[in-house]
């Protein structure tokens, strides 16, 4: 079975494959990942859609993120997921590569040389609180400062998805020493990325973005940031679902102490 580069014509097939694995269709998310990343897939040998997918998003010359690692349930245990992962890792070359792994996927990634470097939990709920008064809506004029701060904190160039925040997301907010973004997924509003000089600034951004969004929101929080996790739970963000952050060939770039939520798990 041949591995090929996917095209926008495959987006509906990706949504069908996601549904087969119990995921939401997340068409807007897939479309963004197709725009900023390299989607690969294997066509189903029975002619019915895709058998497997994987997306590599390159950041600068030294880092990459792997996401949307899916295999159709009827092709489980045939090695397709591993074969596609090996192909994508070849494309990544000498880059440090990271991903978020469920317990189901973790054994494969460990066999391919990934190691766990942390735990993140998806928290969802209706945020309860008051506006901080410390943030404001961002404009395109703020983009330069946002990109400069993010390059310093993230440690490599992820300007491609950041430049799309104003068109992809519902809102972008800035504070003195930070910025945050919120985008609508199928069933809630995801808050990310949030980059800030300290936890107090991050709380202001998270809270104001959540209150502006209204309804159910999602925050993917690093469990090592125990104070922030407790604050979020105290403001209505519950039902955590944990994944492992894993890395291969080196360490995660940047200053993780100032990265408070990823853009999305698929983008780091």
Automatic annotation (TrEMBL):
Keyword Ribonucleoprotein appears in the UniProt entry: yes
Single GO molecular function: acyltransferase activity, transferring groups other than amino-acyl groups
Sequence ranges assigned to domain N-acetyltransferase in this UniProt record: 1-137
Keywords: Ribonucleoprotein, Ribosomal protein
Coiled-coil positions: none
InterPro entries in UniProt: Acyl/Acetyltrans_Enzymes (IPR052729), Acyl_CoA_acyltransferase (IPR016181), GNAT_dom (IPR000182), YitH/HolE_GNAT (IPR041496)
Cellular component terms (Gene Ontology): ribosome
Highest taxon of source: Bacteria
Pfam families, A to Z: Acetyltransf_10, Acetyltransf_18
Gene3D superfamilies registered for this protein in UniProt: 3.40.630.30, 3.40.630.90
Record-given protein name: Ribosomal protein S18 acetylase RimI
Native organism: Nonomuraea pusilla
